[in-house]
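Run log, item B.
One chain of 95 residues. Sequence copied directly from the ordering sheet:
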Amino acid sequence: ANKREESADGRGKMGEGGDDNNGSAQALEPTVTCGGHTRGINDIAWNPVSPFLASASDDKTVRLWDMVTGEPLVEYRGHDSFVFCVDQYQHMIVS
């Protein structure tokens, strides 16, 4: 199962892992690491119908990432304070 991990170091990780047959969680193995935020990441949102990940950070930005390559696509600036949440709805990013 795909899993996501927010990070205090400004790096978001997507990986694969899941529950074993005994119900305990297996270790998250990163498949893509997205680096670029200068402060901690508070939230991430993955759109299951497109290969994009959005991230919200204490650096007052929201970023959009290509989940195939891990490369940053867009940096949205303009928040006056930390960005605590982000979501994707159809072709919109909401924070």
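Observations after the first pass:
- The first strand starts at residue 2 and ends at 5.
- DSSP finds no helices and nine strands in the chain.
Flagged for discussion on Thursday.
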